[in-house]
Amino acid sequence: MNTAKALRLKSKINWTSDQFLFHPRRNRTIIYDLNALTALEHYMQKTLSDITIKHTPTKVVFQQYYYTNATQGQRRELEDTANGSTKGNNEIFNSTALNKLKERLSRLYNKDVEFNLIKQHYPYLNSKILAQYIALNASRYRFRQIRRSLFKKIPLVGGNPQQNDLNATSALRWIQLSRLGQQILPTHLSGVKIQISGRMSLRKGSARTSVINKSIGSFRFHSLKNTMIDYAKVERKNQNGAYCVKVWLSSSVVT
């Protein structure tokens, strides 16, 4: 009896359906961006920062910072130009290959494509570049040698050395710091922290996993108005296994 009643009630339910239509070109833009990022990474083959893509109705702009050990001739040419100008960048990169890449991306997006490639003269000006720089050199040099070489060259300004609390910073705090970094302008570097974890030994067959933390300068997390934190993580593999490089850069900002 109950079963028959349930069947009768079920037949009286008015079913409704909703349809959602998405613009096909907007959906494809995400896929296009992923393909473009992969193509740029294979083309550059240099220590790169995260790529920023800006879409306009008629143009797509790719902006990226990069670092490379330039020769003396290239350094003189870069000194004659403005900081990271287009002329200096075209002399470092193969213009023929860059134009071919631009043509292919233009056909992909059906728009004009513009590259804004800005050279960083020092690896410690960007956390992603510094993390990649350390990861690449970790396969040839010991971390102690890399640390000494970097810490001698990094010009820190202001602040007294104090114990940092990076590991105690909550996830919400990191979100606040990252949002703050998009609204303010950094003036100078005040602190650097490097952490390498994993199998980093240069000796083949070594299976020991270790964690190394080194820092220089000061980190101020209680004053969001005067500090900006730039964080990046890079993972690499060597003959013994995988290792991870994390970098924090603390910069004083214009208030």
Description:
The chain is of the alpha+beta class. It has two domains: 24-119, GMP Synthetase, Chain A, domain 3, CATH 3.30.300.20; 154-253, Ribosomal protein S3 C-terminal domain. Helix content is 37%, strand content 26%. It is built from eight helices and eight strands, in the order H-H-E-E-E-H-H-H-E-H-H-H-E-E-E-E. The protein has helices spanning 2-11, 24-44, 72-80, 86-92, 95-109, 127-137, 143-153, 171-181; strands at residues 47-48, 52-55, 59-67, 112-119, 186-198, 210-217, 227-237, 242-253. The strands form two sheets. Strands 1, 2, 3 and 4 form a four-stranded mixed beta sheet that branches. Strand 2 and strand 3 form a beta hairpin. Helix 2 packs antiparallel against helix 5. The radius of gyration is 25 Å and the shape is globular. The N and C termini lie far apart (76 Å). Keywords: Mitochondrion, Ribonucleoprotein, Ribosomal protein. GO terms for molecular function: structural constituent of ribosome. It comes from Cetraspora pellucida. This is Small ribosomal subunit protein uS3m.
Q: How would you describe this structure in keywords?
A:
single chain; 255 residues; alpha+beta; GMP Synthetase, Chain A, domain 3; Ribosomal protein S3 C-terminal domain; 2 domains; four-stranded mixed beta sheet; four-stranded antiparallel beta sheet; 8 strands; 37% helix; 26% strand; Ribosomal_S3_C_sf; Small ribosomal subunit protein uS3m; Ribosomal_uS3m_fun; structural constituent of ribosome; ribonucleoprotein
